[in-house]
Specification:
The complex is a heterodimer of chains A (758) and B (259). By secondary structure, chain A is an alpha+beta fold. Chain A contains 26 helices and 9 strands. Chain A has 4 domains: 170 residues, Multidrug efflux transporter AcrB transmembrane domain (Multidrug efflux transporter AcrB transmembrane fold, Up-down Bundle); 137 residues; 191 residues, Multidrug efflux transporter AcrB transmembrane fold (Up-down Bundle); 150 residues, no CATH class. In chain A, a hairpin with a 2-residue loop joins strand 2 and strand 3. Chain B is α+β, with helices and mostly antiparallel strands. Chain B is 15% helix and 47% strand. The chains are: A alpha+beta (758), B alpha+beta (259).
Chain lengths: 758, 259
């Protein structure tokens, strides 16, 4: 090499600049903040959030937290005492009112011309008879039975309403300290958004603390086994470290916070960012083995000129695939797109500058590469066998793929979209256990609110609302529907005797309604009504409690609600957190389509440009379409739902998977141009390039497999799906693409000069 | 000379301090302050305005009469406005040592109904006032402490902190302490701050427009209670006041509610 390349001429500067960049990237990491609140990442102007905000303004912005006590019989004196103590303890916190529990529940009834108001629990039953008497009294109280106590009396609920003045961690700490202050044998389960966010928050930090070191360790071991040389291990590892630091530090620098999706970023870097450095080290060792006499500078120069083009192309396609995420509606997804694309870009850049610059200063190592030594390896054997199959039965392979494709993609029909974010936490987590109890025993864990506007004291409107309550509660999945109408009707049973015409009905006259309400507001807490009607009685809420098992179910319930309420002239809006969750899930699906579309078009164009052929674009995209659709099919069959995390995987797998095909094309083209026919070219490509592709794919899969150690089940699902998806990509680029080439003999492989082989 | 002056000064200061100590026994001040108000037996017309945090207002006008018969204070209230609740009347027998008795008459139902509640009604007519704000405080329920002096509306006031004597007293009153600003001259109270059980400021009561009434006492024609935690506010404005109700015990009866 007479002429030194730009890299080697400026090697000192490159090393210094890299060191400065690495040091500078560490500083912003200290200001990295976690924000587990997924809702906060939604754009403010989406309809469900606006509606939810309006409802909050009208009826108080509160976040419910449900504490469930689970035991053999909640009417045991020690359980009732604990409920009393907990209720008082929560009340003393001052930020959780109104509080509803067995301790606050009233028994309002009419008897012998009197209205009686008693606490539901006025004594702790000591004998079996007293306990059964209390049980029967609760069964008659429709404001307590099945609302605060489950039908089987094994669960009781304390409903708290956070006024949002205290941060999640502090609030949950306070609630925990009250629960530990009054210990008991009952199992205490909590649900509610503040709890979910707090748990997610703790797990995000824990995940990164565990996964990142574990991932780095596994990579180090992997590098050692691959290269058995210190520099071979440390150089790609350094590149991984620097690109992780840079991508993570971009989050605070761009004014963003770390969401649950952020857990994926460093692990993705570990899996992907080493690729380019690995190629370089591999090539150095190969050249060192082939010509032990050549100098380190020569080896570096040669490796660089040999690798520049294919490594840049593979890097770019990966970046393009991941950039597909930037068009995602959901902020954390587009943030991940930007940050990881830049991180991978940096890794690519450092692999082609920093690694050769450092390597050129180092002494050559022992020879570690044995060109024929690994031909007996499992991978080589498997590829050789596949080569025979490919050469003899390309049509059978094609048929096999087609059958497999049809069978697995049939699962897409039953693929479901998650309608909430409860699956962020494990199914056995107390949060999900309590959600399960709420769904099974208390009429549902989801809420929807319909707002009516008009003269709320008008008996006509109230009677309509009463009718809706009844109709709604008959819809499958809806546990209860409650409004001011129910309370006025309840008042009528207290203010009238059963023989009176006005008993158990909405009064016919407006004045009577006004007087009932006046009386109720006189005797209760003025805030009691807040959740049902606004201050000047012009707007009222019908609160619908329900349970939905997925997006389709949620849509069915929403449709039923619309059918029942939709035509009422006084209905102004329907909202609630579950509708925000629904819109979030929809935007995840929509975002996924945009990202997919973007990635496919970009990669199609890239391939078409690189190989100067439309059919190269089409054929190259085929393994990706195959992998993405098969992954969706698998999700359908296995019951893994499309959610905020799993929706990201197709962009990532497209970006990575396209590399496999590019390598295959490259090698086949090279073989064909050196005079081989399509069949020979395909088999050779499989046996040679196929080996590199397989090792590369396995290392990326290994990197992603670290995510199995995450504490979030949705991230574990992501790990499974991305590995599967890469596997689909790998198999289809190794077999499907060459089989098609053998059968259809695309002309783009014939054109042009001989390409270098990687 | 110098020494004489010093002794004189010391003497004056000593006398001043001892005078202040006798006049400033906080419990006495609180008792005098309670006695300065003509509560107990009266008739009045009052307008109650209940406001939410956003300033929306609900207004009720009612006639009230109260009088003490033995150990029971009987109170009668009748709404005159707004129209949809006009005529609704309430009779409360407030016993010192047992649960209240209450009757309500609703014109729309045209009948009187007795209300038996084992829960002590905390809020007066759904406002920020409590029923206790409508009657004379029980001086012996609290321990008193003078914490400072302050000027309110140009008047020098004692600032006195009253703490419930027991945990039960605190629970039944719903506050951990109250701080009263009491005029040093005439013992009228201008401001009271209530602290919740966690010792955070809960409510601020402003009392004003004191006017002398028969019998040498005063009555406040305007009273405001602001909940500092939820932003709600209630204002009670007296339109007419007469100390010493002339109503007989028979008139304070449930059969009289529809009259």
């Amino acid at each position: 090499m007479e002429k030194k390349s730009f890299i080697l001429k400026n090697r000192k500067l490159i090393i210094i600049l890299t060191a400065i960049l690495a040091a500078a990237a560490v500083i912003p990491l200290f200001s990295l903040r976690i924000n587990p609140d997924l809702e906060s990442y939604l754009p403010d102007n989406i309809e469900s959030r606006i509606n939810n905000q309006k409802i909050g303004d009208l009826f108080g912005t509160k976040e419910p937290i449900v504490v469930i006590l689970s035991t053999e019989d909640v009417l045991a004196p020690e359980t009732l005492e604990r409920v009393d103590n907990l209720t008082n303890g929560f009340r003393d916190l001052g930020t959780l009112s109104p509080i509803q529990s067995l301790s606050t529940a009233k028994n309002i009834r009419g008897e012998d011309g009197m209205m009686l108001v008693d606490p539901v629990i006025d004594y702790y039953p000591q004998s079996e008879e007293e306990r059964e008497e209390l049980r029967n009294r609760i069964k008659d109280n429709d404001l307590a039975y099945k609302l605060l106590v489950s039908e089987d009396f094994k669960n009781t609920m304390i409903l708290l309403n956070s006024d949002l003045s205290v941060k999640d961690a502090e609030l949950m700490n306070q609630i925990d300290s009250i629960i530990t202050l009054y210990p008991g044998s009952e199992e205490v389960l909590i649900n509610g958004q503040p709890y979910l966010r707090d748990e997610a928050n703790a797990k995000i930090s824990k995940d990164i603390m565990i996964l990142l070191p574990l991932g780095l360790l596994i990579m180090l071991i992997f590098f050692w086994f691959s290269f058995r040389e210190f520099k071979g291990m440390i150089l790609p590892f350094g590149v991984v470290l620097i690109s992780i630091a840079i991508s993570m530090s971009l989050i605070p620098l761009l004014g963003w916070e770390l969401s649950i999706i952020g857990v994926l970023i460093p692990i993705m870097m570990i899996a992907i960012a080493n690729n380019y450095g690995v190629h370089f080290v591999a090539r150095y060792q190969e050249l060192n083995a082939i010509d032990p006499e050549s100098s380190m500078a020569d080896i570096v120069e040669e490796s660089l000129s040999y690798l520049k083009r294919p490594v840049i192309i593979c890097g770019l396609t990966t970046i393009v695939g991941i950039l597909g995420l930037t068009v995602h509606i959901l902020l954390p997804a587009s943030q991940m797109g930007v940050v990881s694309a830049i991180g991978i870009g940096i890794a690519l850049l450092l692999s082609l500058t920093f690694i050769p610059a450092v390597l050129s200063y180092l002494k050559k190592g022992k020879i570690h590469f044995h060109p024929n030594g690994e031909s007996k390896s499992i991978i080589a054997k498997a590829l050789s066998n596949l080569g025979h199959l490919l050469s003899r039965h390309p049509k059978r392979i094609l048929t096999g793929f087609a059958l497999f494709f049809i069978a697995i993609t049939a699962g897409i029909v039953i693929m479901r979209v998650a309608s909430d974010f409860n699956n962020i936490l494990p199914a056995k987590h107390p949060f999900n256990k309590s959600i399960e109890i709420a769904n099974r025993e208390f009429g549902g864990s989801k809420l929807m609110t319909a707002v009516f506007e008009g003269d709320i004291k008008d008996p006509e409107l109230l009677k309509r609302m009463e009718g809706y309550e009844k109709e709604l509660s008959e819809v499958e999945g809806i546990g209860s529907a409650t409004s001011i109408a129910k309370i006025i009707k309840k008042m009528s049973t207290a203010l009238n005797d059963p023989s009176d015409p006005g008993y158990n009905k909405i009064p016919d006259e407006r004045d009577a309604v006004a007087q009932y309400i006046e009386f109720y507001s006189m005797s209760g807490d003025p805030a009691d009504f807040d959740q049902f009607v606004d201050f000047d009685y012009t707007r009222a809420a019908v609160t619908i409690q329900f349970n939905a098992t997925g997006m389709k179910d949620l849509e069915r319930i929403i449709e039923s609600v619309n059918n029942i309420l939709g035509n009422d002239p006084s209905l102004t809006l329907v909202g609630g957190y579950s509708l925000v969750e629904k819109e979030m899930s929809e935007s995840i699906v929509k975002g996924q389509y945009y990202s997919l579309l973007f990635a496919f078009i970009a990669i199609f164009l890239l391939l078409a440009i690189i190989f100067k052929s439309i059919s190269a674009g089409l054929l190259g995209s085929l393994p990706l379409v195959f992998a993405v659709l098969c992954t969706f099919g698998f999700m359908g069959w296995s019951g893994i739902k499309l959610d905020i995390v799993t929706a990201l995987l197709s962009s990532v797998s497209i970006g990575l998977g396209v590399d496999f095909t590019i390598h295959m094309f490259w090698r086949m083209k090279s073989e064909i141009s050196s005079g081989r026919d399509y069949r020979e070219a395909a088999v050779t490509a499989l046996k040679t390039a196929g080996r590199g592709i397989t090792i590369n794919a396995l290392s990326v899969m290994l990197g992603f497999s670290i995510l199995f150690f995450s504490s979030f089940p949705i991230i574990k699902s992501f790990a499974l799906l991305i590995i599967l998806s890469l596997l689909f990509c790998l198999v289809s680029s190794l077999l499907l693409v060459p089989a098609i080439c053998i059968i259809f003999k695309p002309t783009f492989l014939k054109n042009g000069k001989k390409h270098e082989i990687i | 000379m110098k020494s004489f002056n010093y002794k004189l000064n010391t003497l004056i200061i000593t006398i001043l301090i001892s005078c202040t100590v006798t006049a400033q026994n906080p419990k006495d001040i609180s008792r005098k302050s309670a006695d300065a108000i003509a509560l107990g037996s009266m008739e009045m017309t009052t307008t109650l305005k209940i406001m939410d945090a956003k300033g929306n207002t609900r207004s009720r006008t009612l006639n009230m009469a109260s009088k003490k018969f033995g150990d029971v204070t009987k109170m009668m209230m009748k709404f005159t406005d707004p129209a949809d609740v006009k005529g609704t009347s309430i009779l409360i027998f407030d016993y010192e040592d047992r649960a209240d008795e209450m009757w309500i008459y609703m014109p729309a139902l045209k009948k009187t109904r007795r209300v038996v509640s084992n829960e002590k009604g905390k809020n007066f007519m759904g406002s920020e006032f409590t029923n206790a704000d409508m009657s004379k405080p029980n001086i012996d329920d609290f321990d008193y402490k003078t914490i400072s002096s302050e000027n309110i509306n140009g008047r020098a006031c004692h600032v006195i902190e009253a703490t419930p004597v027991s945990k039960e007293a605190a629970l039944s009153n719903g506050f951990s302490k109250k701080v009263s600003y009491i005029d040093k001259d005439n013992f009228l109270c201008y401001k009271i701050e209530y602290y919740d059980l966690k010792n955070k400021l809960l409510k601020t009561q402003i009392i004003g427009d004191y006017r002398p009434v028969e019998g040498g006492n005063y009555f406040y024609y305007e009273m405001e209670m602001k909940n500092e935690q939820n932003g709600r506010k209630s204002v009670l404005k007296t339109d007419k006041f007469k100390a010493q109700s002339q109503m007989s015990e028979a008139q304070f009866s449930s059969s009289n509610l529809d009259k």
